[in-house]
Amino acid sequence: MAWLHLLIAGILEVVWATTMKLSDGFTKLNFSLLTIIGMIASFFFLSKAIKLLPMSLAYPIWTGIGAVGSIIIGVVIFKDALSLKTWFFVCLLLIGIIGIKLSSNA
């Protein structure tokens, strides 16, 4: 269950990062509120996961999910352009996240 909580926390990190961009510097109330709710929910699920998982695993995986997810959202929704070199390092980040999960005893 801790890994599921961590996955949910990571997805919610992508949600709040996206809504923060859409809030236009916190000038749009609906997106600003969604950002705050997403942050609270993300931290809540991270705190649930960290009760059972080592912090040295949970935190980097949470941030990694948020980073890779935000990159994908940026490219798909906001039409961010990434170089081939950048995509290479995004793949390395993803491999690192998967490697941390697979090599852990938790």
Automatic annotation (TrEMBL):
TM regions (residue ranges): 27-46, 58-78, 84-102
Lineage top rank: taxon: Bacteria
A single Gene Ontology CC term: plasma membrane
Protein keywords: Cell membrane, Membrane, Transmembrane, Transmembrane helix, Transport
One Pfam family hit: Multi_Drug_Res
Membrane-topology descriptor: Multi-pass membrane protein
An MF annotation (GO) of this entry: transmembrane transporter activity
Compartments where located: Cell membrane
Primary localisation category: membrane
Family from the record: Belongs to the drug/metabolite transporter (DMT) superfamily. Small multidrug resistance (SMR) (TC 2.A.7.1) family.
PANTHER family given in the database record: GUANIDINIUM EXPORTER (PTHR30561:SF0), SMR FAMILY PROTON-DEPENDENT DRUG EFFLUX TRANSPORTER SUGE (PTHR30561)
Entry protein name: Multidrug efflux SMR transporter
Top-level taxonomy: Bacteria, Bacillati, Bacillota, Bacilli, Lactobacillales
